[in-house]
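Lab notebook, bench 4. We co-purified these components, and the gel suggests they stay together. Before we commit to crystallization screens, I want a quick structural picture of the whole thing.
Request: model the full complex, all chains together.
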Amino acid sequence: MNLKELAASLGLSQTTVSRALNDYPEVSEATRQRVKEAARRNNYRPNTRAKSLATGRTMAIGHVIPVSTRHEIVNPIFADFIAGAGEVYARNNHDLLLSVVPDRDEEQAYRDLAAKGSVDGAIVHAPRPEDPRIALLSRLGLPFVVHGRAGVGDGSYSWVDVNNRRAFHRATEFLLDLGHRRIALINGQEAMDFARRRREGYETALAERGLRADPALMRSDEMTEFYGYRSARQMLEGPQPPTAFLVSSMITAIGVRRALGDMGLRLGRDVSVVIHDDELSYLRNGEDIPIFTATRSSVKQAGRICAEILLDIIRNPGRPPRHVLLEAELTVGESTGPAPGRP
Amino acid sequence: MNLKELAASLGLSQTTVSRALNDYPEVSEATRQRVKEAARRNNYRPNTRAKSLATGRTMAIGHVIPVSTRHEIVNPIFADFIAGAGEVYARNNHDLLLSVVPDRDEEQAYRDLAAKGSVDGAIVHAPRPEDPRIALLSRLGLPFVVHGRAGVGDGSYSWVDVNNRRAFHRATEFLLDLGHRRIALINGQEAMDFARRRREGYETALAERGLRADPALMRSDEMTEFYGYRSARQMLEGPQPPTAFLVSSMITAIGVRRALGDMGLRLGRDVSVVIHDDELSYLRNGEDIPIFTATRSSVKQAGRICAEILLDIIRNPGRPPRHVLLEAELTVGESTGPAPGRP
DNA sequence: TTGCCCGTCCAAAGCGCTTTGAAAACTTTT
DNA sequence: AAAAGTTTTCAAAGCGCTTTGGACGGGCAA
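Here is the predicted assembly.
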């Protein structure tokens, strides 16, 4: 059932029917009701393509999700982020267009999105320092919001980020207060902006107590379970093992926990672990009491906020960029305790 | 840059330019080259909306991903499934339209996809027995492929599924052969078709050895980490604890492992665990040697196959439905051993 | 009654593309 | 050289919608 047929069935013109449905004033209340009722009865939905061609707005948002060419990994936070964003899109009658691309083709993916005119805006995931996609999108004139930040020039575009620096600063202080001196950092890839910030928070906190980060206790890679396992084992079997770990993701921490188990070490007694928890829906950090002591910040919520902001930017072009910095509070769980050999 | 402008800049008509770009024969090789070169130079991409309006094909596939209203959970396998499918879409110049909806609105979401004419086909995720979406899509005439099956009438629609019944039959036999008699099943929600089949495989294997499944050893719920933890603890602390677990997902098994750790039990010695492994990219079951003994089947691969089949159905309507049943091989890892008190 | 305004409706153009039917420009055949 | 065929190009219609510019008629003031 299309507009023409609907109009014919009502004995009205397409114009009037279209206006009635879109709540334009120049149609009488009686006809509006009649039209809406008929539309409902026929389960009429205007054809998206035609509508967007006519209005010049696509009512769709693009998400480009990169797949690591090295390990063929898709970041597990995408599911939750997209669930959050998708919820907002649904509420605002927008579609979500997903492009899954090898990470080296990412730029072209955005270029295509803009050239093909298939979206009104885009979300930029997993920004790297000085990420070229940001300059590209600005140049293309496609509205966008970055989930994370990309180094300097933060003021010139809209972003939603967690205060990664402060979170890791705080977590490190917490471990230092417990008497830990050899604290390992199992971080995400340094190529990512968030990983750099987390490291800075960690290093600063150490420095403030007159300690220097030991390169032997720092790892940086894609945050898989095995990466956590391998890193923890290597460090714990080394000459000067750490007494505590700072781990950038729940999944990696699960690998760390496995390593501890295999080595007969007890989490929270022999070795402490603090994680950053993205609050993935299927990997909750415990129900009532947290399993891991964690700095937590909901990725789903970040998705919602990004989407809200992007829709707002599209509706109101020309406004100054918007920034949201989410604080990650530290919640104490059972994975941390005083450094061994300490009261 | 649109077609009109491109044509003008070349001194050709839109018709000729369009035909040159779409490799129609009625244009000379010389002009074709000239046109393609100019298109490349101007980074020209035909407007998707206009193109699909003209052709009647949207070049887009819809995925409706339900969010559990009970727990606000989005199934972690979606990320990998979509990565696989998205790869195929990209290769075939199709877009992926994602709708995130509360699971109770799922039907309406498909109805909307069809009415708004925004996709050429759809993937049905997580089918339940006698899933109403299948009848609905058939009625709407929207091509679709089901990831999984939905009970009877399997012949009438296309699907890609894992042989869940055989996988769990095999896994149960494996544990029985190791001497286990009290084998627990920590399954997905019984409302899902795959969970029902897995239970059947498990029960049949037990029955074939003259054993009856003990309801006290069977659980069914959303496959979270905590669900695994809670179920394992409850059963192990019960009067007649199991010596082995059959777990429907890696994530749930991580919870089971945590429970074992907390109780001071050793995985593979005190208690055996066999899992079904969907081979999620960020949660590999070990690198070289598998952590868990597992029946494994790649969800990403399933996504690829679903996508290939769907595109094929769209290209060649009227062909009989297609079915792919993937076998999940059993790989032995370190999580299983002989039943305690047995040589 | 006339004139004007306002509320209500409509015909037609246009969004950027594909595709039909026909014309123009070459080639080949007679 | 004309006729016939072939290749190459084009103008225009149409996809399903929105939106512009008008038309029509009823109500009100003059």
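Chain A touches chain B through 63 residues (CB under 8 Å). Worth comparing against the SEC data before the next meeting. Chain A has three domains: 3-46, 60-162+299-326, 164-297.
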